[in-house]
Amino acid sequence: MTQLNFAEAKIFAREALGLINAGVVEDALRHLLSARLPQMFHENPWWIREHSTGAENHAYFVDTAGRNRRGFIDTLVGRTAIEYEKNLENDAIYQGGYRQVCDYCAALLNRGVSSDDVIGILSDTVRWYAFSVSIDNEPTSGNQYGASNITLHLLDVVKLDDQSDENLRRFEIFINRYMGRQGSRTLNARTITSDLGLESYFCGEHIPDFISTVNSAFSSKERYGSIISDLWRNFVTRYEGEAGNEFSRESYTNELYIMTLAKLLCANILNGEIVSANSGDLEKVLTGQWFKERGFANLVEYDYFGWLGEPPFISDLLSAAEKMQSDLIAYDYKNIMAQDFFGSLMAQLADKDRRMLL
Known about the structure:
- By secondary structure, the protein is an alpha+beta fold.
- The protein has helices spanning 6-21, 26-40, 46-53, 91-110, 165-178, 189-196, 201-220, 222-240, 249-271, 281-287, 289-292, 314-328, 343-347, 352-357; strands at residues 55-62, 68-77, 80-84, 119-123, 127-135, 150-159.
- The two termini are 35 Å apart.
């Protein structure tokens, strides 16, 4: 669970209450929250980044008159649809926001998201209401889900009018439970590149482990490392027609990171959920044995990185993979669209020889 900084939360709550009492519009409250979330949750989890970029998502639903409508979801974090209003102590504003949450949840159902995975949140940034969704009746033929097809069920309420430590702990749990849900982040080419690519926060957190493993390997097995370096240079010379290209340990490390990430994502998708390290399967994923046991004989080859999947280096690589999996647990591996997942990620390897080598 991502820890809440109570001091920062108190500052935010007082400031937000001041704005609400001054009658500001909800956009001002939402922008304040987006600015303050990284200060309240210093670990900068994925859902904070999603909150800042997940605004104004397209929504398709049926209105109360039975007409197909198109709109926007205020903020979408994984499978959690959020509607912000300016003051939920006003009953008319609360009811209007509630209807919006109904429409947003129906829109997620129309995207193919299971009702069990949909969460709706209504908030003015100080008062927070979380709802689950049940389907009362299916839409008529040719139509989409709308508010008349579903019922929202109140799951939890927390109000930051009370800034005691006990209530702030409830807010910490609320945010982690409903915004930072495991398995709720959509996995596609865009999120792989932005969330996990070479310029991502995720990579910055995990690449030091790969740098350490590669440096240790080349230092302890200098002769084998020299062979790898020569093979690299020969490959570049063959395809680029230029001799004298130097071996880049940084590029080699980046490619090891991307290859390891690809193995983990492929295994998680095939498994429908995170592959656990406890069963010993994670090491098999890294060596390729896990894929062979499932009929994918040539998915993982030995090539330029196979020696790092053997003792003594496999233990370091396994440790890095376990840390990555603890973050990758945020993604939904069951609802996967057919698309080129890794093309944009590979494009981050700037030089053609690097992409071809990988």
